[in-house]
Amino acid sequence: MDPQHDARFAGLPQRPGKIVAVHVSYASRADQRGKRPATPSYFFKPSSSVAASGAEIVRPRGTELLAFEGEVALVIGEPARWVSADQAWAHVAWVTAANDFGLYDLRANDKGSNVRSKGGDGFTPIGQTLINAADIDPAALRLRTWVNGELVQDDTTGGLIFPLAQFVADLSQHFTLETGDVILAGTPAGSTVVAPGDLVEVEVDAPDTGQSSGRLQTRVVQGEGPSFDPALGSLPAVDDEQRIAAWGSEEAAGLPAAAGADESAARPALTPEVRAKLMDCPVAGLSQQLRKLGFNNVSIDGVRALPGSGKIVGTARTLRFVASREDLFKSHGGGYNAQKRAFDAIGEGEVMVIEARGDATAGTLGDVLALRARSNGAAGIITDGAVRDHDAVAAAGIPVYSSGAHPAVLGRRHVPWDHDLTISCGGTTVQPGDIIVADADGAIVLPPALVEEVVDAVLDKEAEDAWVADRISEGEPIKGLFPMNQQWRERYEAERAGGQSAGATTAGTKDGTEDGTGGSAG
């Protein structure tokens, strides 16, 4: 190590040319966020963000969501280009502790690049002691983080979704990893927000050999410098989505659970048995039974099936668009926006329900998103806006119901704002976890607590209506049969129970009266 180099790099052999960080790598972190990546993804951090152990990190004025991420840092020795996974670890000279600080107030506008949110001066403490990589098992390293002496992260590299050597081999396919370059291998669950005065410590060790990086220490201080200038770029912006991401959960952020989440967790699941019953229930029948229970505002109005789309039965996932405004589209419309996050997160048997305010003058999804939903096993998509790439969406292999087609993209009318919250679609309220059924008659929302009661009532009514239709086909008059009077009711019940008809006399003409309690087709 050159004793003359900048003190910021005291924990490294030299100033790194590149710092490459992994987005999500530990199973515990992925599970906390509800989605595991299929392959690693990365972002760059500038070498000017490096700090040594004992340095302070400044939380800028006007911000609140500075979060730590304890990580294992790999330091490249021999340059690596097109190396295999088996060869990759030989190109790592040292491992040590790192802290990948991020300012979530600036995260939304970075579109996943993390340039501003994670590139600040002092945002990458590294050190304090280098561990020889050749002496340790890369799958048996331990990573621990403390805040003010309390252990908050405790995991091992055995908990990684991808082995450390894979990062080296993967990155070497795209560019040369040079001597001194650093790879930050991601953080486990437990990352959260810290405040001025907090002391964060990170240690990487090899329990089998006793080797340790020592505790990398960073003290958080409040910035007193100038504020961000709106004339130069985006300002810090905080919403509940960023608070939850920074703190790690709604509870840790001091927020109530996301709208509908508590109710959804307590709701009965859509079991395979109930799902199969719902496939036999027409939406018209469901509507009729819900009206009997006092539910008149459960239809998603104005949506129709795209050609080739079959019936939809599933649980709701929700996506909300707000009316387009140029500054809001600039901050929320591009990159890995709420629309893309929602479609990435949708699961098997779920229905993406989209609020677009009934505005069908711009698309709310296209063929790529429809294919993504199909590949995730989603049950269907319903939007009260338009679809783009109409024919390709119709051919995507997933049922889609919309208010029409339009060639324009989001920026014309819509801004993708947030997802998995209570929305209004087609004039009715939809919460995550609601049961959605759609067929040629339209789409309807079933409160989960009522679904079993309603589905059984519909099937009973369908059986009764089929029996009545058979009698009409045999030439019986409608009077007294639809709705059934007492005599027809008795005959129906007897036949349903396996009994025989009391006689061939037309039940509706026995006393010339009707039971006026039934419904009618209208």
Automatic annotation (TrEMBL):
<protein>
    <submittedName>
        <fullName>Fumarylacetoacetate hydrolase family protein</fullName>
    </submittedName>
</protein>
<feature type="compositionally biased region" description="Low complexity">
    <location>
        <begin position="497"/>
        <end position="510"/>
    </location>
</feature>
<dbReference type="Pfam" id="PF03737">
    <property type="entry name" value="RraA-like"/>
</dbReference>
<dbReference type="InterPro" id="IPR011234">
    <property type="entry name" value="Fumarylacetoacetase-like_C"/>
</dbReference>
<dbReference type="Pfam" id="PF01557">
    <property type="entry name" value="FAA_hydrolase"/>
</dbReference>
<keyword id="KW-0378">Hydrolase</keyword>
<feature type="domain" description="Fumarylacetoacetase-like C-terminal">
    <location>
        <begin position="19"/>
        <end position="221"/>
    </location>
</feature>
<dbReference type="InterPro" id="IPR036704">
    <property type="entry name" value="RraA/RraA-like_sf"/>
</dbReference>
<feature type="region of interest" description="Disordered">
    <location>
        <begin position="492"/>
        <end position="522"/>
    </location>
</feature>
<dbReference type="GO" id="GO:0016787">
    <property type="term" value="F:hydrolase activity"/>
</dbReference>
<keyword id="KW-0479">Metal-binding</keyword>
<dbReference type="InterPro" id="IPR036663">
    <property type="entry name" value="Fumarylacetoacetase_C_sf"/>
</dbReference>
<dbReference type="InterPro" id="IPR005493">
    <property type="entry name" value="RraA/RraA-like"/>
</dbReference>
